[in-house]
Amino acid sequence: MKMRILPIATTAVLSAAVLFGGWFAYRHYGVEQPLDRTAAKVPGVESAHTDMNADGITLKVKLSKDADLADVYRTVKEEGARSIGSKSLKLVAENADNEKLEKIWRSALFDVAQAMDRKEYTGIRDAMAKLSSETPGLEASTEIDDDNVYISLRLDGSAKYVILPRQGDRMEVWPNA
Length: 177
Hints:
The protein is an alpha+beta fold.
C-alpha cells in the first residue's frame, strides 16, 4: 500500500485548523465576549476586557471614580456564572495614575499586609480609617466577601481600587496593589 503524503498532510492541517479554530471561537464568543458585555452593564464600569487561560479568567475593568468595587465583582460573578463555569474569576481594577493616592496607599501597605497575613481583616478597616483621618478629603472604604477584600481610596476626583485575595498562595507582593 502506497501512502500519499499530500492528502494526509492536508487532512492533518484541516483537522488542526478546525479543532483550534473551534476552541478559540468558543473562548472568544462563549466566554470572553459575554463576560465583557456583562461587566460593561454594571454601574461604575467604564470598560472591561476578559482574558482566559488555563488558570482561570482574568477580567480587567476600568472603573469610574464612584464605582462600588465589591458590587462589580459580585454582579459579574453572578450574572456571568454560565460563562465562567468552574473556572476561577480574578478581577483586576485598572487605576488612573495619581501619585498622591499611590503615596497614601504605600503608607498603609505595611498595616494592610500584616492584617492580611494574620487574617485579622478589621486591621485593614482600621488602617483605612486612620488614613482617612490623617488625610483631608480622602475617602477610604473597605468591603469583604468570601473571596476578596476590596479597598477603595478616593481623593480629589480620582480613585484607587485594590483587590486582595483572601485565599491563595503565600502572600508576597500583591501584583494589583
